[in-house]
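Re: weekly structure request thread

Next one in the queue (78 aa):
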Amino acid sequence: MQLKKRIQKILVQATLDGLDDDFTATAILFWLEWDTCLELTGNGWFDDDNETNLSINECDTSIDKFKSFLERAGVAKW
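Done, posted below.
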């Protein structure tokens, strides 16, 4: 599946779930991180600033929330 199509699926699911733009953007970054195994900074996320560190918490609850959303969107399975 092409990148554009996967991002479109994420956007559609976020709309169906009534999620805000911040969650949607974070979900896209989360998906890219997990799908491509990128580790571009010390914490594994694209941007190593406080806002990013707070928006993507690596605790199980936060990870499970994004995994569940991305499965519903049909772009990832764990």
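The first helix runs from residue 3 to 17. Residues 3-70 form one domain.
Next request, please.
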